[in-house]
Known about the structure:
By secondary structure, the protein is mostly helical. It is 42% helix and 8% strand.
Amino acid sequence: MLTQTQPSICTLCYQPIETPSRVTQVGCSCTPTYHTNCILRWNDWNPDRCPSCEEPVEFQIEASQSTLCKRQLVILYMIVFIIVLCSVLIWYFTVLQ
């Protein structure tokens, strides 16, 4: 007899977890499973507490390589923007004043 396995459900958004790389467990006694993005948002507002049992936990969320690349690109764009802005301000105050 064939049985279908039910997909895991994120206990924060109650949506199915379909991609294993997007799953995070927080390491408390109730062992819930979350989407990594859901638990990151939870941790911003309720740090160091399990959303299910409110047990104190230490989040050790491993960001995926693509998330790290996106963050690095955002930081790079911010640095470039600041450099360009500083250059324009220096030019404005030295040439036009």
